[in-house]
Amino acid sequence: MKIGLLVGSLRKESFNKKIAEVAKKVINQGNQAEIIDISYLPFYNQDDDGAKPREEYVKIREELKKYDAYIFFTPEYNRSLAPSLKNVIDIGSRDPKGNLWDGKPAAVFSASMGQSGGTMGNHALRQSFIYVNLITMNQPEVYIPAVHTLFDKDGNLVKGTKTFVEDSSKAFVDFAKKHS
Ligand SMILES: Cc1cc2nc3c(=O)[nH]c(=O)nc-3n(C[C@H](O)[C@H](O)[C@H](O)COP(=O)(O)O)c2cc1C
Prior knowledge:
By secondary structure, this protein is of the alpha/beta class. It has one domain (about 1-180): Flavodoxin domain (Rossmann fold), CATH 3.40.50. About 35% of the residues lie in helices and about 15% in strands. The chain has helices spanning about 15-25, 55-65, 85-90, 120-130, 160-180, and strands at about 1-5, 30-35, 70-75, 105-110, 135, 140-145. Strands 1, 2, 3, 4, 5 and 6 form a six-stranded parallel beta sheet that branches. It starts with a strand and ends with a helix. The site of flavin mononucleotide (FMN) has 14 residues, from helix 1.
């Protein structure tokens, strides 16, 4: 099982990226996980697609095709999703051969500084999942609040949250196997 990890925050010290690294490590014990770089993608423009798509669209579509399932790691921005993730969903939905997401298992893990753990960003993303037919893991729900308080002085995720992320990642692998 190859699982693609998509991180909605593009900043270098992103907490969501650090959480994705924890998920990657545990999934790689028996399966495969990679963080898919989406930082180079321009905003989707239909004028740059079609018979001769721009090279970034071709590149990310080929990359996405390598994976059986996906976990999206999102911050909450102004009570909604991270636009970089919506953008890659849009680009992936318009491959010349069709919608790349169709029928693939997916999960959303959200982490934000606020007390709701990015719930609204998390759910906004799921709205698009319905249309592109990503088959979404409903439980466990992964919302990580006050994420800036959850790393120790060496930059490691604190034990309780780390275990939660690891268990949720393993639950997703089981879900993805069942729905592939
Ligand atoms: C434009 C912007 C909007 C934000 N809106 C929210 C928000 O709605 N809810 C929230 O909990 N945090 C919000 N934050 C704070 C983020 O939770 C915080 O920056 C977090 O570290 C982002 O995730 P990252 O560490 O993966 O980059 C916002 C941050 C930015 C830059």
